[in-house]
Amino acid sequence: MFTSEPAISTRTVASVAVTPNAGGLACGIHGRSLIPSGTWFSLARMLRLSSREMQIVQNVFDDRKLDSIAFELGISPHTVDTYFHRLYTKLHVSSRPQLILRVMAGYLALVASGGRPMVPVTGARVTGEDLT
Hints:
Blueprint: E1 11-13, E2 16-21, E3 24-29, H1 40-47, H2 51-61, H3 66-73, H4 77-91, H5 96-112, H6 121-127
Helix pairs in contact: 1-5, 3-4
């Protein structure tokens, strides 16, 4: 006899997502933290992205799906899909992985141009400090 699976829930504890799964717990640091918080505005300006488009990108870095992004931003999934098409066109990409790589390339170009110092990611995670 089949039993229904319990609903999978995700809770966030100190910016670490903990999701129950069949093999135990899957943990991951939010990807948004790979780029210092103060740099997102400069990066959006460099890539010529609107603030809403950058919010979509940040949610992609956090590995959120379309429905989750829509809920988080208080807009419809169709609107989020429209933003994805705009982002793909603006950044000349055709998938989420390419979008992430393009944004990271933009970040590295910004760092190389002296726009922002590069923050040691592992140092921030080990000490718990906000190095931005």
